[in-house]
Amino acid sequence: MNIGIIGYGYWGPNLVRNFSLVNNCKVKMVSDFRQDRLVIVSKTYPGIKVSTDPDDILLSKEIDAVVIATPVFTHFSLAKKALENGKHVLLEKPMTSSIKEAEELMNLAKQKGLLLMVDHTFLYTGAVMKMKQLINEKTIGKIQYFDSSRINLGLFQIDVNVLWDLAPHDISILLHLINKKPYSVNATGISHTKNGIENVAYLTINYSENFIAHFSCSWTSPVKLRTMLIGGDKKMLVFNDLEPSEKIRIYDTGYNYKTDEEKNRLMVDYRTGDVYIPKLESKEALFGMASDFINSITNKTEPLSNAQLGLDVIQILEASQQSIKNNGKEIIL
Amino acid sequence: MNIGIIGYGYWGPNLVRNFSLVNNCKVKMVSDFRQDRLVIVSKTYPGIKVSTDPDDILLSKEIDAVVIATPVFTHFSLAKKALENGKHVLLEKPMTSSIKEAEELMNLAKQKGLLLMVDHTFLYTGAVMKMKQLINEKTIGKIQYFDSSRINLGLFQIDVNVLWDLAPHDISILLHLINKKPYSVNATGISHTKNGIENVAYLTINYSENFIAHFSCSWTSPVKLRTMLIGGDKKMLVFNDLEPSEKIRIYDTGYNYKTDEEKNRLMVDYRTGDVYIPKLESKEALFGMASDFINSITNKTEPLSNAQLGLDVIQILEASQQSIKNNGKEIIL
Amino acid sequence: MNIGIIGYGYWGPNLVRNFSLVNNCKVKMVSDFRQDRLVIVSKTYPGIKVSTDPDDILLSKEIDAVVIATPVFTHFSLAKKALENGKHVLLEKPMTSSIKEAEELMNLAKQKGLLLMVDHTFLYTGAVMKMKQLINEKTIGKIQYFDSSRINLGLFQIDVNVLWDLAPHDISILLHLINKKPYSVNATGISHTKNGIENVAYLTINYSENFIAHFSCSWTSPVKLRTMLIGGDKKMLVFNDLEPSEKIRIYDTGYNYKTDEEKNRLMVDYRTGDVYIPKLESKEALFGMASDFINSITNKTEPLSNAQLGLDVIQILEASQQSIKNNGKEIIL
Amino acid sequence: MNIGIIGYGYWGPNLVRNFSLVNNCKVKMVSDFRQDRLVIVSKTYPGIKVSTDPDDILLSKEIDAVVIATPVFTHFSLAKKALENGKHVLLEKPMTSSIKEAEELMNLAKQKGLLLMVDHTFLYTGAVMKMKQLINEKTIGKIQYFDSSRINLGLFQIDVNVLWDLAPHDISILLHLINKKPYSVNATGISHTKNGIENVAYLTINYSENFIAHFSCSWTSPVKLRTMLIGGDKKMLVFNDLEPSEKIRIYDTGYNYKTDEEKNRLMVDYRTGDVYIPKLESKEALFGMASDFINSITNKTEPLSNAQLGLDVIQILEASQQSIKNNGKEIIL
Q1: Is pLDDT at C268 greater than 90 in this prediction?
Q2: Is the pLDDT of residue B261 over 70?
Q3: Are A14 and A29 found together in one domain?
């Protein structure tokens, strides 16, 4: 399987390094419009061809699959051309700038019999795999809330707001872990720059079932947080991605309540117990994602981080943007 | 000045202890409908009279001022009776269950020439005093956002939701620190109990100026957070109330941006610098509040934590509840 | 059982409060040479008699047992007089200023049929009880090392050095947990004051078995540490007493080694696994100690924190002082 | 300047990468007796010659300077041969296995007019440079103690004990920062393996001036600590190398004492104030060290981390080993 990678920015070197390690897979070409980035590719990997023109990858007979790691607004046209030229496509997150674009790509891929996949890398981390296992095994119980904070002093993006930039990680984890259908969103935010792109934003995802999810995102925080709380009626869980190894903590903590019918009063019993910090799989997540892409092409199977998940994430992002622009109004999904 | 205290629950012992230490002030009576609570008062303070009937305080000729530390739904009627009987009143936060009640009490106090005050204790902490000073001295610069998290496994209240219970602390700090007029609120939340009272809730306060405030509150978190972020265009500040002494951290962190007119692109310069942790005044805040109450009565001055602040907090809480009940709709204040 | 307490300094109020709560026990008298301390006793506990003369307790017919919470250099003479007057004695740690004094008191108590006990409060904490249980149940395996740090900006004592002041806590825990006989000590230290009393000191306790214990103590650290590491060949344990609730962490961490005979090389297999934070008993330790004192008198049983333990601690402290004065020379116990 | 690097283990790749970036310097050859390590070199750096025989570097006419990153027991013979063949030498820490070896190499280098340097990388970190500046500027005041902990679950070395493995970092920092002459050492330790090599050890360095330094080292701790406390009579400083950016904290903390002549009592005034966390230089330390090596050769100047420092460290290590073997006896330096 010969791979071409378009875009050699922050994430590009990680993609090249990991795809180089996957069995039955060779990184043949890298393209970036910045000549200085390509010089670095050539120095580090003398065997890889480089080009400033993505068409050298998109139209090449040698290339079987294309990885697109460019700014979001270019995803659609590059992916479309790749699919039209018979290449499997892996898109960095977020998948596209709109639902419409995502759906058109999915239809095209289906029609051509090609794999279209989105790189939601977090699904392949030891932490998320452990959380999925704990939820599947009913350790956590019935899930009641999901609360995520992803804030730091971060790079202002020029084409998308802070939710489109940071929330896809957490939304993809939510959708992967919690098998419920989101009903609506409310979002608020603020831009401190003249371009009107929000650098602080808050998102609530509402469900018709008794469950709520909330996301805080900021590019302008002096402290860095990468924290997720998941509350179940049996146990509660905290995922702190900044911890070097103790990322997941499971709290044997909760409460039971009953209504005192006579007095119309709530009776609550609290429970705090042991805390348990499981050892996590430490394999690099990106390698797992890259392997899933190659294996799914080879075996014609559906990858974990598939296009439908990418689309579901886009749907929430698009609705959240609409909510922000309408003063936090509820947007039905 | 003779004081009567109504309600000897969680906060009551702190009130008795601190008012006992204030000059020109004597705690004469304590009332609570629970006999076992009064036994504790008598054991610890043999000199204080106790009663299960609040009228023994409200109608007593001996009592000059009444402190009301009972559930919120009882605040209005108790405070009204106290004012009608010529007594100064200190109400625990939140002031009342509604704007209407708060306004009626304020009018009554004005008419009677009595002091009506609300105990927003945080205003008297070393941390908030330091933050106020830093903002006044323009150290932080133009304030851009305010973000508060107050979550833990907490006591479910039976008459008010988690915002009414926990957010008054943070809203009173916001209003005290930031001299801007809130424009509207959006709030979302969820109840995991049958009584429909939200135990997790999120609140955004919008301003017509370029500023936003957000609050996360929960009674059902396995971890306890008491954190506030305040971002200015010169420096940023974190207040972590769980730190035993290093509660305030000032980050010499920020960014400058300009718009590249030709390329229609945002140019951002990031800056991270030293961190500074100021020593804080360590006097007990509640003593400061109690002294302010007594001094304001004696000197006929306005206390820091005055009734207007109490009302402003109630206004935001009432609007937030309305927003939650209307699916997060923006409520203009 | 009527109790008299001599010394109402830092620890005195805690002693009065806890002994007041123990069944079959009444705090009758408190003595302190500082009149202002006695005023506080009378205000808080109008029922307790006070005196500046300890003899009013030591010679009183009413008093059955005496608690001595004065500076170390006064322990011996006060305790001796109490025993001679037929009173059971509880001494604060460290028991006495020397082995000789401790032994004389023990003999006297034995002869008189009275209880002599030392308040090593830590033995009654939930944390130490949990550690004892984990070690007894062989969860930790064969214990290999014990390492304690107890440092902060602390009160300089005028009669004893930092080891005599701080290490008794940790040495009593060591002796309680680890059922091995110490063989010798080495200690080093420094005094930054003219009185020559060490304010920073380090102590190693050597064992003939393959086990070592080390203690760091300081009154002049800008940061506060209360940390203990206990390494076993099955698991390792960290006790951090500054954590509000998560004081004990058990690491499923270790290594196996074998000697590669041919190559004369060490082969080591490392293992890192889950971490487990047990819920601890949260009852106040001092109440447990006070109850043990009263019950041991009543039932003529041996308390957990008995005089022999107090003596063993003194023996190590005396040897450590000798080692410091002899440039760290090994002192056989 | 053409460089040959002998030893491509844990540290080798960092050396190759950093020397490759230094001006006027080219990494020509890498040698390691393990063929699989050389394969990695060739893959990553196709331009570098490789060999399993160090003589191919030591005897090469092309090579101007040799970097030796092999186990300690091989340092002396490799460095000697390099110097005899007219090559400048950089040795990884610890410099050699004994004072005798270190002195012989220093004499040989002097005689040949070649640079002999030891890689104490920490001297080039932003943290140590900042501490050096703070001490030089008299911010900290007169230094009173130095306390270092370097513990974790670490690789058991086969030829040296835990002090020789871990303490050189901290001893080199001590000697670099504190301009005082050590007088003697005491050390204790324990081996839990059959080869008798200590895996836990404690070292005190005594000074004739009123200053003490202490080091805790362990390969068998479940938690990782990299902490250094430096106490001055004006301020105190904590260096926590595990903090990603806030490595240095300066505490405006201290005490003043005077002796109350009449009462022969110590009067102590405590002071706790602000904490200050300076921004640190973030350039890679190893690059600074590599540049210093190349520049010192070119300009015939003395590097910061010179052979004398390497020897001073060895002297302390040798004495500490002697102390451990003599039951903690003081060894005069």
Answers
A1: no
A2: no
A3: yes
For residue D94, the domain's CATH number is 3.40.50.720
Residues of D in contact with B272 (CB under 8 A): 245, 279
Residues from chain D contacting residue C249 (CB–CB below 8 Å): 222
With an 8 Å Cβ cutoff, is D302 touching chain B?
no
Q: pLDDT tens digits for A112-122?
A: 999 999 999 99
Chain-wide mean pLDDT for chain D?
Answer: 93
The answer to whether residue B297 sits within a structural domain is: no
* Residue from A250, A253, A276 whose CB has the most chain C CBs within 10 Å, to mutate: A276
Pick from B245, B272, B276: CB nearest D276: B276
Cβ of residue D9 closer than 8 Å to a chain B Cβ:
no
Tokens at residue C99, please?
């082995």
Q: Do B279 and D245 touch (CB under 8 A)?
A: no
Look at A274 and C275 and tell me if their CB atoms are within 8 Å: no
Q: What is the ipTM metric for this complex?
A: 0.92
Asked whether residue C291 is domain-assigned, the answer is no
Domain boundary among D94, D119, D144: D119
Distance from CA of C251 to the nearest CA of A (A): 9
Residue B182 · residue B313 · CB < 8 Å: no
Of A222, A268, A272, the CB nearest to B253: A222
pLDDT confidence of residue A255:
80
Domain count, chain C: 2
Whether A68 and A146 share a structural domain = no
Of the three residues D68, D98, D119, the one that is the final residue of a domain is D119
What's residue C81's pLDDT? 98
Domain match, D63 and D144 both: no
Contacts of B75 (CB under 8 A, 6+ apart): B68, B91, B92, B95, B96, B97, B101
DSSP A306: B
Q: Is B213 helix (H, G, I), strand (E, B) or coil?
A: strand
Q: Domain range spanning residue A262?
A: 123-282+314-332
Q: Is residue B148 part of a domain?
A: yes
Within the 195-254 window of chain B, which residues sit less than 8 Å (CB to CB) from chain D? Answer: 245-246, 252
Question: Three-class SS of residue C306?
Answer: strand
Question: Which residues in chain B are contacts of A229 at CB distance < 8 A?
Answer: 151, 221-223
The rounded distance, in Å, linking the Cα atoms of C26 and C17 is 11
Query: What tens digit of pLDDT does each residue of D112-152 get?
Result: 999 999 999 999 999 999 999 999 999 999 999 999 999 99
CB D213 within 8 A of CB D145: yes
- Contacts C–D by Cβ distance under 8 A: 147
Q: How confident is the model at residue A263 (pLDDT cuts 50, 70, 90)?
A: low
Query: Is there a contact between D97 and D74 (Cβ–Cβ < 8 Å)?
Result: no
Q: Considering only CA atoms, give the Rg of chain C.
A: 21
The answer on D228 and D159 residing in a single domain is yes
Type of residue at D264:
N
Q: Residues of C with CB below 8 A from A275's CB? A: 246, 276-277
Tell me which residue in C245, C272, C274 faces A276 most closely, judged by beta carbons.
C274
**Is the pLDDT reported for residue A262 higher than 70?**
no
